[in-house]
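User: Let's play a game. I give you a shape written as tokens, and you guess the letters that built it. Ready? Here's round one.
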């Protein structure tokens, strides 16, 4: 998992503007109970009824249905975060840099980052005039405190892996708007890492008990697993939110989210399986936001658990996957075929790697060579995101053709996260660009690397990548993709669209290549 912690050619990032597909809805109909996509989060005060529909005027209230996460908190640095918590954090907190909905790296709370000659020290200039949601000034002292908290292993921050080269003793405030950061090793892509949702800035001394951020919204009420109520941060430095409030109510399953949308209890269902999306397609009053990008759902194989340490077994299982069937059956066509490696970077051409196709006989031979002809195993999932269970079911059907039995073990989110890194096989998701994916989940010893894959050649190339610039990065990443494809521990059959049904009175939603459209709500309005 990318630390937990959404067509054509596989492996090529789509960074252009994406169109929104609009579908109409007439009458409620029964919908299947499947795993929910959590792209935003929530939770309500016990006993609270759903928030009333906004009538506009003061900017209105945007009501969002999201997936239940009883273990969530407001601490943006907590370990093993669900997508629910991460997406709420995106509305409350901000990083020094950020990614646009098109995947472009933009400045956030910083306006400039300058390295010394050997890339072992970076000077950060902060955006002037930024205030926290409580009205206090954002200064270099807050950056120093945030980095200090993240860098302290005792806090088990999920984002620690991304800044492990920072020397905590060499981070200091030069003045109110300047921070100097010393590193233990040279590191070139310093700007890119700070766009990660796991590395936000918070007010000094506020975490973990009462975190305060600089984001466009602030918390007014929060009950884990139930509801979150946010209010507009009128002192926000950027584009001011057009809605006055956001209410996020958590639901146990996808059917409950969809029914809440159809009965007008919420304005947005934070995600939908293709089946649900198509069930809504002919109804009045509902539209569908379709985010196309490089979001992946993948099957992880724990290399410390036999027989998945044997590359022959891993390659055999990859050869059993009918990727076109995964796209059509598991994702209803809202996906594109992938090739067992993560997506590259926008400026790089796709790697010249032949597309893997099903080859049952070759898979049988590899399993026989490995002494695993009668292989049987279970895949664990929390079923949190649309398509997780469906993808596993298609894979099980494919594997059966070679005499491999695959069962699906659906567990709760808390259990799944508590045993993260122990599951022999599991379903994971990845919404992040390639560089943070490498740092967070493909290198050994990372929280996100639940497969415990450790490839020396890949690690050596990663070290080169951390020093490279421009087209040098492309050549290196394509070599890394080949190692993923030939020796990796993830079965990555498809890049998946993120589907988000919403009431047609909601305007201003934008698709996101990272599959997190609810991170961008400042331009959203809710009509009467």
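Assistant: Ready! My guess for every position:
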């Amino acid at each position: 998992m990318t630390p937990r912690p959404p067509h054509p050619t596989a492996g090529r990032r789509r960074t252009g503007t994406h169109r929104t597909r609009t579908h109409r809805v007439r009458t409620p109909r029964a919908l299947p109970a499947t795993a929910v996509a959590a792209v935003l989060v929530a939770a309500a005060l016990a006993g609270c009824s759903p928030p009333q529909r906004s009538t506009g005027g003061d900017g209105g209230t945007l009501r969002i249905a999201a997936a239940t996460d009883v273990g969530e908190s407001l601490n943006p640095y907590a370990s093993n975060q669900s997508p629910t918590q991460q997406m709420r954090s995106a509305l409350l907190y901000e990083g020094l840099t950020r990614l646009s909905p098109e995947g472009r790296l933009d400045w956030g709370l910083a306006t400039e980052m300058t390295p010394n000659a050997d890339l072992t020290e970076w000077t950060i200039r902060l955006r002037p005039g930024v205030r926290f949601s409580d009205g206090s000034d954002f200064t270099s002292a807050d950056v120093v405190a945030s980095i200090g908290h993240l860098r302290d292993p005792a806090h088990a921050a999920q984002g620690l892996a991304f800044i492990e080269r920072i020397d905590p003793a060499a981070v200091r405030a030069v003045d109110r708007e300047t921070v100097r950061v010393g590193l233990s090793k040279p590191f070139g892509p310093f700007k890119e890492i700070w766009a990660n949702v796991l590395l936000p800035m918070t007010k000094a001394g506020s975490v973990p008990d009462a975190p305060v951020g600089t984001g466009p919204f602030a918390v007014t009420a929060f009950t884990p697993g139930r509801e979150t109520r946010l209010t507009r941060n009128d002192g926000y430095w950027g584009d001011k939110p057009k809605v006055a409030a956001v209410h996020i109510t958590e639901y146990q399953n996808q059917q409950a989210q969809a029914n809440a949308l159809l009965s007008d209890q919420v304005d947005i269902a934070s995600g939908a399986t293709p089946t649900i999306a198509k069930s809504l397609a002919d109804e009045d009053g509902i539209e569908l936001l379709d985010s196309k990008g490089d979001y992946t759902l993948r099957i992880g194989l724990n290399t410390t658990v036999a027989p998945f340490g044997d590359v022959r077994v891993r390659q055999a299982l990859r050869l059993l996957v009918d990727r076109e069937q995964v796209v059509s059956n598991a994702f209803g066509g809202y996906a594109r075929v992938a090739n067992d490696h993560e997506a590259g970077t926008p400026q790089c051409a796709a790697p010249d790697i032949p597309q893997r196709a099903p080859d049952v006989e070759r898979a049988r031979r590899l399993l026989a060579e490995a002494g695993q002809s009668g292989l049987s195993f279970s895949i664990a999932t929390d079923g949190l995101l649309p398509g997780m269970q469906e993808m596993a079911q298609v894979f099980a059907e494919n594997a059966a053709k070679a005499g491999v039995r695959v069962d699906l073990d659906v567990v709760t989110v808390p259990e799944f996260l508590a045993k993260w890194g122990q599951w022999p096989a599991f379903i994971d998701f990845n919404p992040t660009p390639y560089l943070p994916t490498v740092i967070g989940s493909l290198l050994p010893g990372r929280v996100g690397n639940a497969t415990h894959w450790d490839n020396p050649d890949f690690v050596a190339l990663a070290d080169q990548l951390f020093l490279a610039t421009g087209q040098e990065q492309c050549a290196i990443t394509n070599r890394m993709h080949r190692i993923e494809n030939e020796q990796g521990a993830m079965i990555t059959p498809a890049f998946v669209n993120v589907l988000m049904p919403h009431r047609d009175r909601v305007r201003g939603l934008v698709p996101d290549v990272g599959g997190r459209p609810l991170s961008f709500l400042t331009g959203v309005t809710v009509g009467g």
